[in-house]
Predict the structure of Phage Mu protein F like protein.
Amino acid sequence: MRTFTRKVREAVRYFLRNGYSSREELECWQSVIRDAAEGETSSDYLDRVSRHLRHTYEMQISHAKALKRHPGVSRFTLNYIEPKLKTELDRRILASVDLIKLNRQKAIATTLSRFSGWASSIPPADSIALRGVQGAMLKTAEHIQKSAEQVDFEARRVMIDQNHKLIANIDNVIATDNNAIAAVWHSHWRQPGYDYRRDHKERDQLTYLIRGNWAQKKGYIKPGNAGYLDEITQPGEEVFCRCYVTYIYNLRSIPQEMLTKKGKQFLESLKAA
Ligand SMILES: [Zn+2]
């Protein structure tokens, strides 16, 4: 994974030491860098990304951690819808590889063009020996190395984000298949150092109605102050959002204010019986 970064660093060091001598030499280094970039194939990412996402899937589905967000849904049901969940996993893996590839191509192009501009502006070796390399030139060199390191950094970020999106989509499949009626938002805003979105913090602990659910069709519940779940961005939808929702499957767990008169009567009749 790091061959590209290493080659960029080597090239920068070479030009700092030897100065710019000819177009040919620069082109030679450009192709060394490009080869290093292309030597790391997408199958490397496929491996890394799929290992990471598969692990999450294992935890959430095989070890049933997802059920914590779906009280009332059984292990049996989870097994039953597994083919659908598996599809989510495969889709997420493909999307991640595409994203990483795209980001990478961009970062490589930027690095190469910065490097070429910089290298060709360096004086020849004898004048470097005479005057030394100026501060600005060293700064630019650092800048180029940073943009090369960005390649790996971005790949890691995509992986973390896609991991969270996988969990959100798994949840969505489970909730849809089991007729969830509402969802409670959870934000990590209390966690120190977490860069939360202000509007997501405001959603924390609010209950959102799922539009058209069976209980609403029967006239038992209505949206509360928070409104419908489909009126807001979904957890994990916005970049690096780590919020999640827990789902409500039965009337008893719905906040009073969302129950209609008919709903309350229905609950009473259940208690009486
Ligand atoms: Zn969020």
